[in-house]
Amino acid sequence: MSTPFIAKLRRSDLKRCAELEQVLFPGDDPWSLESFAAELDRGHHYLGAYDEAEQLIGYAGLSLAGRPPEVDAEVHTIGVDPAHQGRGVGRALLLRLLARADEHRATTFLEVRTDNDPAIELYRKNGFEIVGLRKRYYQPSGADAHTMRRPAADPTAEGGGAS
């Protein structure tokens, strides 16, 4: 498979997002089409990953809060079709979300299941560290979540930060 094409998430793909949620998060509270639509309506930054046939194979969302110099970003979701996992789709989506956070020099937060080792490793490799634990965060399964944080990009660092 070639590198996925990443673009702004299309409203026409929200049904597919909700279908993937059912597959990816069956033991918890998967997002509905309406949940995704509400995120777009709020103006949050949502991206889709598309294959060669322009079919949605992954999605990701980020919110920004605050005003410079105190801006925080939160990764709301990253989901990748199981048939395309392990091929860099999630990483490509994450990097695009982090680029957006870096434009705003935002510290970025996220929650991840404590048993999701591949995701935790991906986040660590991209500058996140575990800063907290949320007991029974995911419902109805009751799974725990790590809170992870990535510091804001240093605009004075070589090649880093927003210009």
TrEMBL record:
Annotated ranges, domain N-acetyltransferase: 4-153
Alphabetical UniProt keywords: Acyltransferase, Cytoplasm, Ribonucleoprotein, Ribosomal protein, Transferase
Spans annotated as Disordered: 142-163
GO CC annotation terms, alphabetical: ribosome
Cytoplasm is among the record's keywords: yes
Superkingdom of origin organism: Bacteria
Gene3D superfamilies in alphabetical order: 3.40.630.30
Pfam families per record: Acetyltransf_1
UniProt keyword Ribonucleoprotein present: yes
Database matches in PANTHER family: ACETYLTRANSFERASE (PTHR43420), ACETYLTRANSFERASE YPEA (PTHR43420:SF44)
The family this protein is said to belong to: Belongs to the acetyltransferase family. RimI subfamily.
Protein name, entry field: Ribosomal protein S18-alanine N-acetyltransferase
Organism: Saccharopolyspora gregorii
